């Protein structure tokens, strides 16, 4: 299988329970909830995405001929040191491309594997840390994992249904658009009303990281 990667980079995890952890991010091209083209945004299931996942022309991106080639590129981005290797599979929607071969290749090189997915496709059982960010109007099938990260406000979200799912951590993240201040207050109010949930911020943006 050929893997289409928009970009790949070494950074610090900016969101969620593992914020601050050193990681190689692999941003896979393509998504099943939006084409990535602005002309399609208003008719897409997910209309608020702030990420460019179209093509393979980003820094560290490209088409990798097999799992071994991609895993080796991830190891090169990590640099020296074989301990505590950590990679985050994101997109777009990474589960459109993740398969046995890639999971095995990354594990063979000592990487712990995390994923950030919209949950509309089952996550590969070999993934070590599952973060699901549900989008209103989509059919979420992956209803268990390590983190549920709800971008808020998001009209149409069935929060009561989400609270029947099986996650270890429940996170609310303010929607990053022109209404950031109001959205942050809405997320704070959400957590104050529902103490199971915790607030998470996009720390990498505040720090100027990718």
Following the backbone from N to C, one meets helices and strands in this order, namely EEEHEHEEEHEHEH
Rg computed from alpha carbons, rounded to a whole number of angstroms = 17 Å
- The CATH superfamily of the domain at 3-148 appears as Aldolase class I
Question: DSSP helix count?
Answer: 5
Strand order of the largest sheet: 3-1-2-4-5-6-7-8-9
Say how many strands there are. Answer: 9
User: In terms of structural class, how would the helical and strand content be classed?
Assistant: alpha/beta
Q: In the CATH hierarchy, what is the class of the domain at 3-148? A: Alpha Beta
Main sheet makeup: 9 strands, mixed
Cα distance spanning the termini: 28 Å
Oligomer: single chain
Q: Percent range for helical residues?
A: 10-25%
- The pLDDT mean sits at 96
Strand content: 25-35%
């Amino acid at each position: 299988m050929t893997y289409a990667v928009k970009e790949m980079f070494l950074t610090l995890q900016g969101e969620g329970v593992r914020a601050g952890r050193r990681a190689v991010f692999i941003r896979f091209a393509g998504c099943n909830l939006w084409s990535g083209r602005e002309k399609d945004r208003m008719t897409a299931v997910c209309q608020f995405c702030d990420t460019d996942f179209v093509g393979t022309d980003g820094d560290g991106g490209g088409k990798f001929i097999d799992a071994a080639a991609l895993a080796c590129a991830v190891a090169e981005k990590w640099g020296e040191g074989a301990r505590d290797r950590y990679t985050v599979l994101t997109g777009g929607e990474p589960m459109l491309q993740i398969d046995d071969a890639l999971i095995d290749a990354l594990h063979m090189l000592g990487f712990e594997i995390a994923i950030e997915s919209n949950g509309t496709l089952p996550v590969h059982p070999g993934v070590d840390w599952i973060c699901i960010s549900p989008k209103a109007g989509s059919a979420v099938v992956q209803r268990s994992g390590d983190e549920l990260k709800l971008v808020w406000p998001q009209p149409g979200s069935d929060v009561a249904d989400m609270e029947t799912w099986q996650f270890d951590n429940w996170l609310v993240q303010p929607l990053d658009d022109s209404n950031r201040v109001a959205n942050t207050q809405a997320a704070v109010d959400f957590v104050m009303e529902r103490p199971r949930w915790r607030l998470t911020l996009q720390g990498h943006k505040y720090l100027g990281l990718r």
